[in-house]
Amino acid sequence: MSKMLKLITIFLTITTISAQVPVKDGWRTVSSPWDAARFREVMTRVLPKAYTNPAIRSGRIAGGELAYLGQFPYYAFLYNVDSYGDTYVCGASIISHNWLLTAGHCLDEIVRTSVYVGMIDRVNGPAIWTLDVTPANFIIHEDYFGIINDIALVRLVRAIPLSPYVTNVALPRRSDSSVVLEGKIGTVCGFGKIDDVKSQPSQFLRFINQDIVANSVCAKLYGSVNVKSTNLCMNGTGGRSTCSGDSGGPLVTEITAGQKTLVGVVSFGAELGCTLGYPLVFTRVTSYLDWIEANTGIVIYS
Predict the structure, then answer these.
(1) What is the pLDDT of residues 112-121, one digit of tens each?
(2) What are the Peptidase S1 domain coordinates in residue numbering (predicted)?
């Protein structure tokens, strides 16, 4: 079979599957859960009081690049509806064919969510697979509070059909807890806002590569009470950053050469802006391996 014929066959297969998964009405008017009134006090508490670096503006999500189909096969898009009827965008990581890992604040007061995988255009779609999920299948960390223990699981009652375009990401081993991540390049993707001016998340899936930095860098700005050992920090300079709508999404890096490992879950950043150079804060996955194993049955290797 020629290379061109193979590409056509793959395209037709994806189109046939994903044509059955249309996007929902109203996706043009969604926001981040951090924009909800109930989270304003939390973000006010972690708001940096001063920052001396010059402002750097960017026309795209913190200098992000467009992703292509299959580049992040472990990314899941969450379309959430809360108890007030408001809709929010979040991300999640596929950690097995029946489980997603996301941020606790993404599921707080959410009454239903629609999971979409294999999608790089949130307005027009299509997606390869979708499933509506109710709170009965949410597991938010029992000690979650705002930005503390900001981690949650979504149980999928119908298994995701894994393929080269949709698959799970590797979880860390327990021994990886002792690996120094500072200085490693991390990759994060999502549909977050493309800059500090736009009111809506990005139509297209984007990604950035930035270096992971010591927690002390974040603690200087957000305070040690907000940045704990269960967090992980990433450089936000150069206008390259996560933004509203990226919550819950995956941060991966290579702990073992050649293998992307999930090390962080997008938690929070500076309320002042996404492109101003502030560091980014994630939930550190290695701090919750026992919790993940206990709640999902996924074996975490030593």
Answers:
(1) 999 999 999 9
(2) 61-297
